[in-house]
Amino acid sequence: MAQDQPVPTGAAESAARPEAADEPVVAFDFDGTLTIRDSFSAFLKWRAGRRGWLVGCLRLAPDALAYAFHRDRGRIKAAAVREFLKGVPRAELEADARAFAEQFSRSMLRPDAVAAWKSWRNQPVRLGIVTASPEIVVAPFARGLGADYLIGTELAFDAEGRVTGGFVSPNCRGPEKVVRLKAAFGPDFELRAAYGDTTGDREMIAIAGIVGYQVFKGRP
User: Does pTM surpass 0.70?
Assistant: First the structure.
């Protein structure tokens, strides 16, 4: 997978460039939109191995049962982070994320979504990804695509740089996607186009000039 300039997490690099300050924004959801499946669960399964994944899922059974009642995706995601990643050093997690992207980008990215991405790449817009998945996991994919920015769920790290099992900010889904976009680009930014595939993308898509809801169906 080709590696371009690092994409900063939690902020928009292009927003700081004077020549790009007035350019409209194009936002792609990641899981199910640019990819054929959820990247975070696939990453956790790959990293843990078959046995570790099965054991971890068994331990998460009470959290999965509770989710059936509270329906809070942020809570179940935080539980998975605690089970599979708590205590992992940032550098190790970043290296694993790079290895995962290098191994699976070709088999996970939708060709029609990538084609649409490339068509926007040739236009004067700030092009990036807005995802509920952890930024640290999606960052290598974003770099490979040449994204101007990446906005996602931010994992918390302790003073030694190890995963705490919590988040720095709310799960980046639903209304939070719009909140994070406005924080990155300002309250009056223009969202030229937005692409997504679930109800978690609807608030973002609702403020876009060009709506792309469940438009990508291609498989590698």
Answer: yes
